């Protein structure tokens, strides 16, 4: 057997989550000479309680942060002298991926890319990069297959979650081949056991059985899955860490398969329930693979084998949930037949309990706070943001806080050049964000009766800021609007032909749109400006009256025309990355495709208010309303 690898300083991402917390606990306790640094952003399915067994260990440190924050990741790798990365952090629930696939792309692909790039930049320091993937990247296994998918099998993912994990794998493989990064990839079957967030099948069924509620089965329950107990999986990662070969893939699996129906019946037996009465059949997922089956001989050759029998593991799991029924707080949203992330608890970082635990972690271990302070002191970026009281300006501040980027809001008025210069000289920013502008309250009709005020802010103010930024060698990110186009003969409704960045604005039905088109044209003369055309912004915060969904849900009548939309939760963080990369020019800052008002309101009715009703304008009324930029037909085609 080859010489075993012995790490010194290990970064484990996502270790406040289920599987990684068991791995971290095992390694911290078993190898006191190894230093373990955990990086976790404490998403809804994470819990600091998972790490309490090791919180007082001298070889353990917890850092709250996001793997998508390149500066934080770089700082940790360098200051902690990390030589080994075990990358577990990911969005993993398939149901959520059908409803919010972009979030999975951001976390699973972009987050992995940030981590890989950070490791590449510290040449030679990283000796192992273990990437944790899933059996779902193989896609569906034939029902009559007697041999499972081996590590060289083709990747054929069938759902958004699996696709993002396969995409992340391609990046890992590319960094291994292109840059010589010492990568190892694992692909595992389903895992169960204590501490698992109850969006997953087994803890969900256990908690529902404890409450005397029905156990919902997707489809007919014939789907086949393989389950491994969490401690066996933690041991598998311990073996791969020490004995795995660089450049190889390892399946972590079992040849013992069970249908979802059989799992439900076994849980019913534990609680002395009649399965026929306790089980309820519900609608299936949009697509639900019939079977995943792995060949795990390669991992067994390293000396690993499954130890925990199904009956024993299920009993231990049941006993843990019975003893810790309030471990996760209110999980009613997760126990629904088809949960979505928006139904889950909003993470645990805001609770008093977890704030207290964070303080406890910091006091027991080398404090996390100095890391944050040091990052701020040495941070390569500092943002100056205009538009503090606006929706986008406020969200930008929150993004900066989340990513640990120093920022300040500008105090000067845009049309007052001297006040802008004072802001820049005082704050010394690396980038300037302009989210200020006049849109009108309660709507853009205000601009029709306040034309000089609209010109001062939307035209004079924006141009003044761009000019001051140019004089100081600063990039300005300017949040503009897509409300400068309407369907025409070259871009007919329903044709799939969208307006591109170099198309000339053709909508002049409102004074607001005139000023925005005018300033966009003039800004082309400034090479230091990145213009982002925002269109009908939407966010997950339905309490915000500026949210397009909230806005139209309060209208008596609405038009029904396909429009481009900007989902701020997804695109605003991208604008920050664009600033970091000093991108310039004009970008249609919208999500792909179009969606009509009726389609949005149908989803609002389905997910928010089943009793909601609305009325559409008649064709004659709609024609008269098209002078209103909030109702005009436009589709901007993003790059």
From TrEMBL:
Keywords: Lyase, NAD
Keyword NAD: yes
GO BP annotation list: nucleotide-sugar metabolic process
Domain NAD(P)-binding: start-end pairs: 11-317
SUPFAM superfamilies per record: NAD(P)-binding Rossmann-fold domains (SSF51735)
InterPro entries linked to this entry: dTDP_Gluc_deHydtase, NAD(P)-bd_dom, NAD(P)-bd_dom_sf, RmlD-like-bd
Coiled coil (UniProt feature): none
Gene3D superfamilies per UniProt: NAD(P)-binding Rossmann-like Domain (3.40.50.720), UDP-galactose 4-epimerase, domain 1 (3.90.25.10)
One GO MF term: lyase activity
Stretches assigned to the RmlD-like substrate binding domain: 382-554
Cofactor(s) this protein requires: NAD(+)
Database matches in NCBIfam families: dTDP_gluc_dehyt
Protein name: Uncharacterized protein
Organism from which the protein derives: Urochloa decumbens
Lineage, highest ranks first: Eukaryota, Viridiplantae, Streptophyta, Embryophyta, Tracheophyta
């Amino acid at each position: 057997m080859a010489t075993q690898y012995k790490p010194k300083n290990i970064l484990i991402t996502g270790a406040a989550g289920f599987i990684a917390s068991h791995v971290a606990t095992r390694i911290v306790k078993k190898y006191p000479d190894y230093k373990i640094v955990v990086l976790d952003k404490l998403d809804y399915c994470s819990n600091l309680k998972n790490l309490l067994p090791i919180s007082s260990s001298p070889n353990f440190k917890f850092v709250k942060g996001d793997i998508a924050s390149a500066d934080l990741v770089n700082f940790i790798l360098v200051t902690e002298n990390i030589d080994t990365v075990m990358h577990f952090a990911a969005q993993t629930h398939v149901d959520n991926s059908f409803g919010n696939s972009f979030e999975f792309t951001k976390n699973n692909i972009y987050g992995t890319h940030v981590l890989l790039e950070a490791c590449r930049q510290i040449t030679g320091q990283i000796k192992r990069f273990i990437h944790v993937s899933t059996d779902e990247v193989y896609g569906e296994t034939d029902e009559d297959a007697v041999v499972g998918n081996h590590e060289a099998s083709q990747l054929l993912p069938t759902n958004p979650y699996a696709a993002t994990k396969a995409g992340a794998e391609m990046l890992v493989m590319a960094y291994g081949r292109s840059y010589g990064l010492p990568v190892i990839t694992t692909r595992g079957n389903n895992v169960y056991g204590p501490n698992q967030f109850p969006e997953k099948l087994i803890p969900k069924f256990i908690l529902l059985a404890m409450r005397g509620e029905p156990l919902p089965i997707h489809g007919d329950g014939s789907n086949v899955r393989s389950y491994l107990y969490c401690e066996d999986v933690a041991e598998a990662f311990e073996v791969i860490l020490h004995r795995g070969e660089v450049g190889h893939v390892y399946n972590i699996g079992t040849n013992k398969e069970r249908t979802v129906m059989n799992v439900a019946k076994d849980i019913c037996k534990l609680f002395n329930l009649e399965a026929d009465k306790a089980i309820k059949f519900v609608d299936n997922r949009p697509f639900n693979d019939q079977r995943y089956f792995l060949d795990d001989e390669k991992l067994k050759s390293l000396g690993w084998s499954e130890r925990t029998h199904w009956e024993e593991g299920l009993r231990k799991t049941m006993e843990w949930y019975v003893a810790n029924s309030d471990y996760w707080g209110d999980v009613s949203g997760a126990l629904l037949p088809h949960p979505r992330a928006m139904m889950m608890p909003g993470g645990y970082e805001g609770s008093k309990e977890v704030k207290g635990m964070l303080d406890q972690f910091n006091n027991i271990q080398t404090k996390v706070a100095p890391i944050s302070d040091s990052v701020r002191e040495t941070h390569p970026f500092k943002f100056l943001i205009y538009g503090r009281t606006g929706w986008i300006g406020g969200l930008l501040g929150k993004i900066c806080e989340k990513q640990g980027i120093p920022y300040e809001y500008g105090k000067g008025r845009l049309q007052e050049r001297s006040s802008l210069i004072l802001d820049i000289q005082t704050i010394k920013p690396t980038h300037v964000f302009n989210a200020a502008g006049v849109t009108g309250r309660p709507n853009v009709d205000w601009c029709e009766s306040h034309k000089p005020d609209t010109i001062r802010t939307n035209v004079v103010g924006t141009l003044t800021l761009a000019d001051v930024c140019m004089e100081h060698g600063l990039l300005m990110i300017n949040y503009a609007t897509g409300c400068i186009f309407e369907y025409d003969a070259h871009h007919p409704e329903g044709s799939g032909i969208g307006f591109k960045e170099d198309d000339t604005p053709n909508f002049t039905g409102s004074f607001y749109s005139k000023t925005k088109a005018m300033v966009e044209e003039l800004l082309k003369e400034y090479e230091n400006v990145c213009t982002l055309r925002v269109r009908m912004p939407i966010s997950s915060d339905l309490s915000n009256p500026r949210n397009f969904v909230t806005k139209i849900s309060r209208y008596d009548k609405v038009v029904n025309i396909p429009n481009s939309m900007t989902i701020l939760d997804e695109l605003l963080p991208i604008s920050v990355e664009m600033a970091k990369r000093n991108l310039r020019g004009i970008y249609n800052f919208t999500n792909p495709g179009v969606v009509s008002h009726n389609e949005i309101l149908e989803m609002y009715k389905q997910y928010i208010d089943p009793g909601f009703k609305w009325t559409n304008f008649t064709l004659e009324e709609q024609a008269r309303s098209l002078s209103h930029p909030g109702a005009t037909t436009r589709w901007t085609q993003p790059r």
